[in-house]
Amino acid sequence: MDNQHYLDVPFYQMRQKLLLYGYLNNGYHAWGGKEPGAIITDQDLTITNAIKKVFPSTRHRFCIWHISLHADEHLHSLRSSYSPGFDEQYYKWVKNSKTIEEVESAWKELKDKYKHEFVEPLTDKQHNEMKSWKWLENMYEQRYSWVDVYLRDTFFAGMRSSQRSKSINSFFDGYVNSKTPLSEFVGQYTRALQSRRDQEVNEDMQTMKAKPDPLNLHPIEVQVGNIYTRKNFDKFQSEFQACFYCMHDEVNTCDGVTTYVVTYKLGKMVDSQFVRCGPSAEEFACTCGKFETAGILCKHILYIMKQCHRMKEVPKCYILVRWTLTYRQCSKKTGCGSSSVSKDSMVSPLESWNLRKSFMEVHERAIGHRDHYNAIAPLLEDMMKQLDRVDKQHEDLVLEQNASTPAISQGAISSNITIRDPERAKTKGRLRELGRISSGKQVSQKESQARRRTCSMCGIKGHDAKTCGKTKEKVKLLTY
Known about the structure:
By secondary structure, this protein is of the alpha+beta class.
């Protein structure tokens, strides 16, 4: 997924065991030997084993869309026998539990209430229920990979699904179909990739041109609107608006840590979460885990910041650089190249070309002999560490500048744009050389004329022998 604008990026899964091991190993080396923080895939045993072997420290999560699909397939017999009580208890275990203790308690209640011991011979209904419970117990053993409560300490950028059904179809829509030959696939894939890059550039432009629209003019909302991209500000604004429907009660204070219970109530929807505030008044944690998993502050924390602490801005530690307008300029791939950088500190095209040429020469020599490789590898590691330190300094600097720089007004943008009159058209409507398009009535008239009969008496089109004037004259003469 594109970091700034939530545009999906396709990820291809290889189910063959050896190919998947090789793919992940190549990715591991291509990423500089760094393991990804989290991976979301289908519930596939081959993929699970490969990830455990290649990325032992990576948090692996099962796609919730596929879990729901498998639940509909395996729980049909239990739902038909014990509806609606079974569904209520099942969702209490899976979705509505807020702590690990509640999850374990809900699982025990589910088993005690709906799991029964059957005596041979089994009926078809009993056999199906046993199969459903076998699947449920297997999912319970793997609960650390899909139940939300166990995953609230890992950052997933707000994703719970691998988005394969959505991302792949939308990515190739209009470029590739089931009849596309393999010889054309690479070219069409390149065009689709270029289209996605154009969408990202267009979203960047819209974000820079658009003025944030704070609904309440609260300092926190204005601050975040000047820093976040459009999509991320919309997500933040949704949470900030929801905090107006919250209320709180102070539970206790211990060792400088205050615990509140924050209740969000809108219509029939009621959601209560615990928010803990540290002694520094800038340390917040919520049991919903939205900031830890999605990187956006939840309505519960925002409510405590606004209502209890009367804060005027969000602490820097709760603003992720990946959601900001200047993320591309401050990423480790491109360096910090924001508009505030002076021309003297920018790298010229000639310097860039010379640097690339030097690195290519080093690469050619390093791969030619093991001693050359051993000599250059530690130096490159030291260089990367030094660049990381510089990037960190630049990220802190950009956050400070974004927080202190006011938003550019729409009038300031439009004042620099000159709108010219369009070129005068020589003719109105359709070009003369193309001719005028006939109306439906004219087309039908031409078709009817083409189908007109020829009279057998006079040889003229447009009538037949019965209505021909010569026929009438002939009949009159015969009468006399």
